[in-house]
Design brief:
Pfam family, one: Fer4_15
Number of strands: 7
Low-confidence stretches: none
Number of helices: 2
Strand content: 35-45%
Distance between the termini: 14 Å
Order of helices and strands: EHEEEEHEE
Structural class: alpha+beta
Strand order of the largest sheet: 4-5-1-6-7
Shape: globular
Keywords: Electron transport, Iron, Iron-sulfur, Metal-binding, Transport
GO molecular function, one term: iron-sulfur cluster binding
Helix content: 10-25%
Protein name: Ferredoxin
C-alpha cells in the first residue's frame, strides 16, 4: 500500500501531521512534507506505507480538507479519498 501526496494542493491545515508522524510541518512554506517520499512528478510525492502505519495513513488521508492525500492499494486502485 502506498500514499500519494500532492504538496501543491496542500493548504497547510496540518491535520495529517496530527494523524500520522510521516507528515511534518513546513511552517516556512505553509505546507506539510511527507518524510521518506520520492517525488514522482512536480510536487507529487509517493512512499510505501508500513503495515503498522496503515490505519494512521488512511486517517491522515481522510482528514485532509482538500484531498491532497490518496491511499493506493497494491493493485494500483485508489482507496481514499
Amino acid at each position: 500500500m502506498k500514499v500519494e501526496y500532492d504538496r501543491e494542493t496542500c493548504i497547510g491545515i496540518f491535520q495529517c501531521v496530527d494523524e500520522w508522524d510521516a507528515f511534518q510541518k513546513d511552517l516556512d512554506a505553509g505546507k506539510a512534507d511527507l518524510q521518506d517520499a520520492e517525488e514522482v512528478e512536480e510536487d507529487v510525492f509517493v512512499r510505501e506505507i508500513p503495515e503498522d502505519a496503515e490505519f494512521d495513513a488512511k486517517f491522515a488521508a481522510r482528514v485532509c480538507p482538500v484531498e491532497a492525500i490518496r491511499i493506493i492499494d497494491d493493485d494500483g486502485e485508489q482507496l481514499i479519498p
